[in-house]
Amino acid sequence: MIRSSFFKVLKWIIIIFFMMFCIFPLLWMVISSFKNINELYNFPPTLLPNNFTFENFIIVLSKGNFIRYFINSTIVAVSATLLTVLINTMSGYALAKFDFIGRSFFLMLFISTLMIPLEVIMIPIFRVITKLGMANSLLGIIIPPSASPTGIFIMRQYILGIPDEIIEAAYLDGASEWNIFTRVIIPMSKPVIAVLTIFSFMWRWNDYLWPLIVLSDPKKYTIQLAISNLMGQYTVDWNSILAMGVIGIFPLLIIYFVFQKYFVSGGLSTGLKG
């Protein structure tokens, strides 16, 4: 009994240690964003600020084009997430419930693209969006990543668990294919849609490399590109970087807290069906 209690306490100590190890950089960023420039370079460093100030946030919000960058990131993340959820849900539904020739082949084809590094296909994708006139535009970073093989796979795995009898009953009631999709599949797939929404928003909001390739007009930059521009050749504006970073994590937290009640159940259900 004593030995069991000892290992249980030890397990929780280890878990708490690794949790704090992961959380500390984020905690340090948030606390340091309220320090002035002199405190940031103090040695030895201090965790809590000696002079608590909102000056960094005021400077970021009042100077430059931070609001424009924030709006650009919001447009990209929200639009790409909505498009990703729609396309991947439709694709997952088709691969899970439609019986057509080559279904398994197309599924394996989609999944196999996960083995191709993004760096390999960046140039072909950029050439395509250039031909379509989407280079240096927000559409160029919204549309290409919308059909995600990861999203298609997790949607297909979840929808496999929806009983065929429910869909057949809807057919017997005279429901059209679109009505079945919108009134049966989507409501029953809320948990996995929440998972895909969180992941997609996080990917699009934090994306740096693809916007860097596509965008050349500073007015169309996302918040990640704006933060990188604060790192010069000889100086780094740490105060503004920390403040922008803290502001930049709020949309991610909001999305997570809105969909968190579906997140666990959706995440656990996506890999149970073969």
Topology:
Elements: H1 2-32, H2 37-40, H3 55-62, H4 66-97, H5 103-112, H6 118-131, H7 139-142, H8 149-159, H9 164-172, H10 177-188, H11 190-206, H12 209-214, H13 223-229, H14 238-269
Description:
- The chain is an all-alpha fold.
- It has one domain (63-269): MetI-like fold.
- Helices cover 72% and strands 0% of the residues.
- It contains 14 helices and no strands.
- The protein has helices spanning 2-32, 37-40, 55-62, 66-97, 103-112, 118-131, 139-142, 149-159, 164-172, 177-188, 190-206, 209-214, 223-229, 238-269.
- α11 runs antiparallel to α14.
- 26% of the residues are buried.
Number of helices in the DSSP assignment: 14
Low-confidence stretches: 266-274
Mean pLDDT: 82
SS-based structural class? Answer: mainly alpha
